[in-house]
Amino acid sequence: MFKSVICLVLFFYSIINFAQNERNIWYFGQRAGLDFNSGSPVEITDNALTRNIFFGIVEGPDNLGVVNDEDGNLLFYTEGNRFYDKSHNLMPSSPTFVYSQIGSQLAVSRNPGNENQYYVFIQEQVGLRIDLKYFVVDMTLNNGFGDILTDTSGILIRNLTTQHLTTARHYNGRDIWVICISQNFFRSYLITENGIRLDNVTSQSILGLDDLNVAYNRGMMVSSPDSKKVAVCFPIASTIRIYDFDNLTGKLSFNDIEVTAEKLNLVPSSQANLSLATAEFTHDSKFVYFADSANGMHRINLENSTGISLDHEVIVDPNNGFPFNQLCRGPDRKIYSIQPNGPLIGAVNNPADVIGNVSFDNNSIILNNANNLIDFPSFLLPKLPLGISFENICLNEQTNFYVNPENEATNFLWNFDDNNSSSTDRNPSHTFSSPGIYNVSVQYNDILTGILVTENIQVEIYDSPIAHQPSDIYNCQENRIINFTQTTDEVLINQASNVFNVTYFLTEEDMLTGTNKITEYNGNEGNHEIYVRIENRENPECFDSTSFLIYSEYFIQIENVMNVEICTGTPVELIGPDGFDSYLWSNGDTNKNTMANAEGTQYLRVFRDLGNYICELEIQYNIEPKDPLIIESISIDEFSGYNNSIRVNTNRTENITYNLGQYLQNDTGYFTDLETGEYELTIIDDCNNTYNQNVLIINYPRFFTPNQDGYNDEWTILNFEKINDLNIKIFDRYGKLLSVLNNSRKTWDGKYNGIELPSSDYWFQATRNNGSSFSGHFTLKR
């Protein structure tokens, strides 16, 4: 009996250690390797990836990507430049021209839509910047040894990124988040069964980092096994920040825990000796470990720490002498650390246990065939997380539940918290009846103790929309901007717009990934399919889709906006275009023309039967009040005897009638051959508004005879008495000023200082306040 118990315990221990086998094969450093498939790490020497090391710095990224399947079998490994298959042969399509940024992170992920495909994310050095790119490896190619899909080789996701890169599981249990830092923001990209959504989720700015400054690019990032935390190291700033990660929305919460050298009295960073340079979570996501060469190894209890206080413990004293460089969690749940430029690998035993049971072994692994370890690899997220898990959280789809493979129990009872629904399957499926939060539980008997164990998990189910089929749009107008307001209403039909969002795309691929949305369409000739996606605003992966056609087989040239002026209190006729079969005004009139009684907007829909369909166009009539008539200027050409003229300038030129006196009328405002005198100018606009103004034409006598006979005894300007701004200067033939006439003196008697001047020609200059002037001459006869 005792022996059987011991065997059972050992067997169970082995199952626990190797249930998540995606971390079983390691390739790292300079041709180093480990194999955990036997239950203990064993050195392997088949790493074909030679890497150059200069002054302790490895060429390329700080970690290789090693892709193992869920059974621990190697599939391939890469540093982003050379891709080696499980037989350690270079894949035919390896992009040997691509160079990852030194010190950057590399990440790998499954394709949720294809079990034979895997994403590899690298950060390529392009000049002074870093670009995030990806490759897709398809294991069905190259006779089952895998190769890169040719159309997915080095696809740019984003430029100006930092070294930081990690992956995390989406809340739906199926999709994967890729998280990077670019231009001072965390950016999360979602990998779905339909591809990568390039419309990234952006979290707020961090630390004020300058992405073009190489020093601030440095660091690493790692997500917790439950995908609810992200630890980010900024060694230059001597800072580690642990963020809450919302794996439904992809956002990082900035109620973060900040670990600084100053808070923990650690050695601050320098270029030669960086502090807080690496971090790793325990398997249960309750602790995060961090270490560096100068300060030893520490851990933070995340359950008891806040942004204000840290539950902090020293695991390895700095005086231990182990030169910590990187940390990595093994499949045996130990946390390993390498000795740079040496063969030793240290290990934290029982890292998630109480502090008294935690220990560090400097010489946990001694490699015989590798001295330059430098870094640890990155791996796939496990196919199933610890404990019970689920996938698919949209209403009307089956939600699948899983017990972790480490659980060897055989009898299970599931309660789905949904109308007494239950199941006795090990990994059941259930379709929930309505959206909401469900407290799901599973009971089983522990195989060692026989004790009844209950595990609980909370599942939120999100409402799934229905994409109702919208009407096709028939467009007959070139360069018409088509908006989708009416289409959105047709797609929704009684579904709340504050719950569901409707978006539009030009291709099905864009619709499936939710990228390159369009908000309107500028119709070109030909028929075009528009793809529609309706999605839950809280969980965009709960979506439905449809499409409709925009027919643009024939364009009709027409003005689609008409501006019409209206006189206050007087209806105006709105005139529709010729050549259409029927008309429909927004006021209900079906005649070609209609009347508008006030300012505002009217719409006219015109229809023409083109045989295959009815062409419908819309014309917008903007009805605006006419501008009031403004007399801008009245120009008078005078002093010309019977050849004077008047020109009236107004702000409007059409449909204006000008009357000068009783008999003169025209529509130009220009009158010629006018005699000297006063005229009444009347202007009537097309709104029948009348404007009156008196206009005076002045002249002068060509001679005068100051002989006191009562006729022409004085010289003056005709109609001078009606003018207040006229100034006259009189000169003799030699330019001598003889007299000045103005408002106070308006005539000249032919004398200068009381002396009569002789008969002769005399000159005058007339000036008005507006700056106009006129010069002429007259004769004095005695």
Strand elements, count? 61
| Strand coverage percent | over 45%
Distance between the termini: 160 Å
For the sheet with most strands, the description reads: 5 strands, mixed
Structural class: mainly beta
Low-confidence stretches: 1-18
The pLDDT mean sits at 88
Rg (CA only): 45 Å
Question: What is the spatial order of strands in the main beta sheet?
Answer: 55-61-60-56-57
What does this entry show, briefly?
This protein is mainly beta and 782 residues long.
Report on the structure:
This protein has 4 helices and 61 strands. It has 782 residues and is mainly β. Strands 55-61-60-56-57 form a 5-stranded mixed beta sheet, with no helix packed on it.
Comma- or semicolon-separated keywords:
about 775 residues; five-stranded mixed sheet; disordered N terminus; single chain; about 45% strand; 61 strands; 4 helices; four-stranded antiparallel sheet; mainly beta
Write the layout of secondary structure elements.
Blueprint: H1 2-17, E1 25-28, E2 32-35, E3 42-43, E4 53-54, E5 57-58, E6 65-68, E7 74-78, E8 83-85, E9 107-111, E10 114-126, E11 129-138, E12 147-159, E13 161-169, E14 176-182, E15 185-192, E16 195-205, H2 214-217, E17 220-223, E18 229-234, E19 239-246, E20 251-260, E21 278-281, E22 287-292, E23 296-301, E24 312-316, E25 327-329, E26 335-338, E27 344-349, E28 359-366, E29 388-391, E30 399-403, E31 412-415, E32 422-423, E33 429-430, E34 436-445, E35 452-461, E36 473-474, E37 481-483, H3 485-492, E38 500-505, H4 508-513, E39 520-522, E40 528-536, E41 543-551, E42 561-566, E43 572-575, E44 582-585, E45 593-596, E46 600-609, E47 614-625, E48 631-637, E49 644-650, E50 657-660, E51 664-666, E52 670-674, E53 677-684, E54 690-697, E55 703-704, E56 726-731, E57 737-741, E58 751-752, E59 755-756, E60 760-768, E61 773-780
Parallel strand pairs: 36-41, 42-47, 55-61
Antiparallel strand pairs: 1-2, 2-3, 4-5, 6-7, 7-8, 9-10, 10-11, 11-12, 13-14, 14-15, 15-16, 17-18, 18-19, 19-20, 21-22, 22-23, 23-24, 25-26, 26-27, 27-28, 29-30, 30-33, 31-32, 31-34, 34-35, 37-39, 38-40, 40-41, 43-45, 44-46, 46-47, 48-49, 49-52, 50-51, 50-53, 53-54, 56-57, 56-60, 58-59, 60-61
